[in-house]
Design brief:
single chain; 148 residues; alpha/beta; Rossmann fold; 5 helices; 4 strands
C-alpha cells in the first residue's frame, strides 16, 4: 500500500474534530486489522470527552476501544512528533488542520467526509444505528485503503 506520491505507508493518523467518535473509531478499526504492520494514531483539532456509543458499537464487532483517551493533534505533535505518511481527515475542521500541517510535515492527506452520528436525533436505538453506519463505513474504507 502506497501514498499518492508512491511512498510505502508505514504510519497513519486519523483526524477529526474532537477525537471522540470518528477518529478513535477509525484508529481502533485500523489497529484491529493492520496494527501489526502499521503505526496508527488518532487525534482531534480540539479535545472532547469519551463517547460511550463509540465504545459500544466497536465492542459489538469485537474491538475494545475502552482505553482510548481523547487528544489533540497539537498534543500528539508535542508528545511524539507528527511522523505520518498518511493523514486521513474525517471532518471539515480536521481536513483544514491536516492541510495546514503539510507545510511542515511530508504526508499525504485524504478527506473521508463521514457524518457525525452524535447529531442524530431520536431513540437510543436510532442513535446506535447512526454510530453503526459510521463504523461500518470505516471498516469498509479502512480495509480497502490500507490492504496491501
Amino acid at each position: 500500500m502506497e501514498t499518492e506520491k508512491g511512498r510505502h505507508i508505514q504510519a497513519v493518523l486519523f483526524a477529526c474534530g474532537f477525537n471522540v467518535i470518528r477518529s478513535p473509531m477509525a484508529e481502533a478499526i485500523a489497529r484491529h486489522y493492520f496494527g501489526r504492520t502499521l503505526y496508527i494514531q488518532s487525534a482531534g483539532v480540539t479535545k472532547g470527552t469519551v463517547d460511550p456509543f463509540t465504545i459500544a458499537v466497536l465492542e459489538e464487532i469485537g474491538i475494545d476501544a475502552s482505553k482510548h483517551k481523547p487528544r489533540t493533534i497539537d498534543e500528539l505533535d508535542d508528545w511524539e512528533g507528527l511522523n505520518f505518511d498518511l493523514i486521513i481527515s474525517l471532518s471539515p475542521e480536521a481536513h483544514h488542520k491536516a492541510l495546514e500541517l503539510t507545510r511542515t510535515v511530508s504526508a499525504d492527506v485524504e478527506y473521508w467526509p463521514l457524518p457525525d452520528p452524535s447529531l442524530t436525533q431520536g431513540s437510543r436505538d436510532q442513535m446506535l444505528d447512526a454510530y453503526r453506519a459510521v463504523r461500518d463505513q470505516l471498516v469498509q474504507k479502512i480495509t480497502t485503503r490500507l490492504r496491501d
